[in-house]
């Protein structure tokens, strides 16, 4: 009996009633996506109170940020699909292999964005603004986003891999922890509260 309960718990996508499964799988995913969307909203609120030019710079860098999100999420969703199908076929070794290769692809994706972060940020900003202060804010912000993107790329990959196994709670918790940390440290680092340095727009990352 104990073994049967364990199997049901691990294979809920094949055993749980459809209505209950939809709610237990979709609600945490919806909350996670809502939290993710709030990141830029929170950043915009604090940066808007710090500098209007900084807020302008944030809007200008968003296309490259969107490319980063698209590549990391798109790759992770592909791995998610493959892992879930292999688990459904009970091909566990191939599922493990897919998850492992998914993590390896993170480093290839990161190499691309590292190159962009080093060489393409200033030319990209110069295409959209001639104001030196706005350009510099964008360069500071986007360089950090792209050159340190490895962590966010790996985080997305791990979240999607966990979701492929039917685990929706941990990915939601990862997003919530990140959002709370972002809300706490944004004002501290942007405005330089207490012993924290005033980093301006760069402090939001």
Descriptive account of the structure:
The protein is 84% helix and 0% strand. It has 205 residues and is an all-alpha fold. Helix 3 packs parallel to helix 9, helix 4 packs antiparallel against helix 5 and helix 4 (52-88) packs parallel to helix 7 (132-147). The radius of gyration is 20 Å and the shape is globular. The N and C termini lie far apart (50 Å). Mean pLDDT is 86; it is low at 1-9.
Feature tags:
single chain; 205 residues; mainly alpha; 9 helices; disordered N terminus
Could you provide a short overview of the structure?
This protein is an all-alpha fold.
Largest sheet features = none
What's the multimeric state? single chain
Structural class determined from secondary elements? mainly alpha
- Give me the strand/helix succession: HHHHHHHHH
Task: State mean pLDDT (0 to 100 scale).
Answer: 86
Number of helical elements: 9
What does the secondary structure layout of this molecule look like, with pairings?
Layout: H1 2-10, H2 12-15, H3 18-50, H4 52-88, H5 92-119, H6 121-126, H7 132-147, H8 149-164, H9 169-191
